[in-house]
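Supplementary notes for students who missed Thursday's class. We covered one full example, reproduced here. Read the sequence, then the structure, then the short commentary at the end.
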Amino acid sequence: MASTRSQKPSAKAGSPRRGAAATAIALLVALTPATAAAAAPTVVAGPSSIQQAVTGTASARAVTVKIRGHVDHPRSFTVARLRSLPQHTVHVRYETSHGPEKHTFTGPLLSEVLKPAKPRIDAGAKNAHLRLFVTATGSDGYRATVAWAELDAAFSGRKVLLAVAQDGSKLDKEGPRLVVPGDVKGGRYVSGVVRLYVGDPA
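Structure (token representation):
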């Protein structure tokens, strides 16, 4: 006659302890290298075209040209705003300490940039505007001066520009450049203009 022995109840597959262990194993299996790589943040090797466009726009807005001096309404222009004005293109050649240079510049006429500031001109004096001068200051402190008669295209026939592009490349980062066509030497081609001072020696 077979005897019956009492047996201890074995742990069932569905017990809480085994369930927790199974869940942990499932998580480890799920977290494969491919999954971890997918979850990791994407590293961009270089700036995208969109990032470059945003950076260029930010630079165009950051560089500011202040108009001060003998004016009724001091003004400030960003490169982006200068580009919104009517644009002119000139081809110039001038001598430098490194030899001759030839460039193509595009930008608004300096006279058009100054117009909103309303330079003070004595309407009762003969050719009063011919007394005025404009000094351009670069970001490095370099300065050069042009007489009003030179920048007035109707008087001199020159197209003195505050260029926002040189040889097809935008000057958003460097800042605008004073361009004085007809100068034999490039000493008045002030780079990175940040200030325009209108003066009257009278």
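Commentary. Confidence is low (pLDDT under 50) at residues 1-14, 31-45, 47-55. The radius of gyration is 35 Å. If anything here is unclear, bring it to office hours.
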